[in-house]
């Protein structure tokens, strides 16, 4: 699907203001785009029961407001050569999140990261080629990051994404 509003990164002045409230049609459009981010404006408009111009305007607004952060492919990591997945928790030095985050963003295996509360500070979802690559990531690269005090690794045996279009 062509990206209305151009850059869907959410960057810019529009990101700084509060997003406008979403109505039932906006939510329907979001659900449709989550099912198929490549859907045409015409298809989205037809399925949401609005005109193409209305669908285009709503999608553009949600991109501008940062509600839609981009249009991506959902990947089967095992089929893509990253058969080892894990959640990794990190304890980090107090006030080091920005620096640790910047270093974590450089690691291609990191699929998702979150600063969290509780017994640890950071939660990562990582995908590596195999257990050897996962071991190298944890024991060599993560443990050597400045600000990382300790890690705990939870191996993922099976993954299921719960998103629209996944068996709904």
TrEMBL record:
Q: Has the keyword Cell cycle been applied to this entry?
A: no
HTH asnC-type domain segment(s): 22-83
What cellular component GO annotations does this protein have? Answer: cytosol
Against InterPro entries, the record matches this protein to:
AsnC-type_HTH_dom, Dimeric_a/b-barrel, Tscrpt_reg_AsnC-like, Tscrpt_reg_AsnC/Lrp_C, WH-like_DNA-bd_sf, WH_DNA-bd_sf
User: Is this entry keyworded Electron transport?
Assistant: no
Q: Which GO terms describe its molecular function?
A: sequence-specific DNA binding
Q: Can you say what this protein is called?
A: AsnC family transcriptional regulator
Species this chain originates from: Mangrovactinospora gilvigrisea
């Amino acid at each position: 699907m062509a990206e209305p509003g151009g850059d869907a990164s959410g960057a810019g002045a529009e990101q700084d203001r509060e997003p406008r409230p979403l109505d039932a049609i906006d939510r329907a459009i979001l659900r449709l785009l989550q099912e198929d981010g490549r859907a045409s404006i015409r298809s989205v408009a037809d399925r949401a029961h609005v005109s193409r111009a209305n669908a285009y305007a709503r999608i553009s607004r949600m991109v501008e407001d940062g509600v839609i952060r981009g249009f991506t492919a959902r990947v089967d990591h095992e089929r893509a050569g990253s058969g080892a997945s894990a959640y990794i928790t990190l304890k980090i030095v107090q006030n080091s999140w920005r620096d640790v985050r910047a270093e974590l963003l450089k690691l291609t295996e990191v699929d998702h990261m979150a600063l969290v509360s509780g017994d640890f500070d950071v939660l990562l979802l990582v995908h590596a080629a195999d257990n050897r690559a996962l071991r190298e990531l944890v024991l060599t690269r993560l443990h050597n990051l400045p600000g990382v005090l300790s890690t705990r690794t939870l191996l993922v045996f099976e993954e299921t994404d719960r998103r629209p279009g996944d068996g709904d």
